[in-house]
Amino acid sequence: MNKQELANTLTKAEHMCAHSGGRLTEKRKRILEVLLSSLTPLSAYEVADVYNSTSESNMPPMSVYRILDFLESEQLVHKLSSANKYVACSHIACDHKHQIPQFLICSSCQNVKEIAISKSIIDELDQQVVDAGYKLMNSQLELQCLCERCTHNAA
Ligand SMILES: [Zn+2]
Ligand SMILES: [Zn+2]
Ligand SMILES: [Zn+2]
């Protein structure tokens, strides 16, 4: 993401927060920026490391967690449960409604691509879960993949 895209995305994120009654404070914005600038998902500790290495004031991991929670509730970042790491949402600058995300995670370079799952697949999945007597709590999918580049490199 280049500087201009980053600036546009952050402005859009600010509007989204304002719209839902939240506020994208300077610290929250900086944390989001860390994730937007990262090529791979980061743990809360890694986010804190990057933030602290580029700012004068140190932010304790607890504050980073709180900010990540906020950003997650605004759908600006997503948590990958399988890796316990965070990624910035790929659709912040988009105008369409956010759908249930599906994450393709490259097992080789850790690159992540966020795509939307079609509702019919989720409905079917949900039905299977119900049939098994369970209740679906989180329909976000995280799939282990090889990205295009790594597939080429492996060939
Ligand atoms: Zn998203
Ligand atoms: Zn989009
Ligand atoms: Zn890869």
Number of strands: 5
Approximate strand percentage: 15-25%
The CATH homologous superfamily name of the largest domain equals Winged helix-like DNA-binding domain superfamily/Winged helix DNA-binding domain
Secondary structure category: alpha+beta
Bound molecules: zinc ion
Regions with little confidence, pLDDT below 50 for 5+ residues: none
Helix proportion of residues, in percent?
Answer: 40-55%
The shape, in one word, is globular
Largest sheet: 3 strands, mixed
* Helical stretch tally: 6
User: Average pLDDT across residues?
Assistant: 94
Q: N- to C-terminal separation?
A: 28 Å
Looking at the overall shape, the CATH architecture of the largest domain is Orthogonal Bundle
Which descriptors apply to this entry?
single chain, 155 residues, alpha+beta, Arc Repressor Mutant, subunit A, Dna Ligase, domain 1, three-stranded mixed β-sheet, two-stranded antiparallel ribbon, 6 helices, 46% helix, binds zinc ion
Describe this structure in words.
The protein has 155 residues and is of the alpha+beta class. The protein has 2 domains: 1-92, Arc Repressor Mutant, subunit A (Orthogonal Bundle), CATH 1.10.10.10; 99-155, Ferric-uptake regulator, C-terminal dimerisarion domain (Dna Ligase, domain 1, 2-Layer Sandwich), CATH 3.30.1490.190. The chain is 46% helix and 15% strand. The protein contains 6 helices and 5 strands. It has helices at residues 3-19, 26-37, 44-53, 61-73, 119-131, 148-154, and strands at residues 77-80, 85-88, 101-106, 112-116, 141-145. It has a 3-stranded mixed β-sheet with strand order 4-3-5, with no helix packed on it. It has a two-stranded antiparallel sheet with strand order 1-2. A hairpin with a 5-residue loop joins strand 3 and strand 4. Helix 3 crosses helix 4 (61-73). The longest helix is centred in the first third of the chain and has 17 residues, at 3-19. It is globular. The two termini are 28 Å apart. 22% of the residues are buried. Bound molecules: zinc ion (3 copies). Residues 75, 78, 89-91, 98, 101, 114 line the site of one zinc ion.
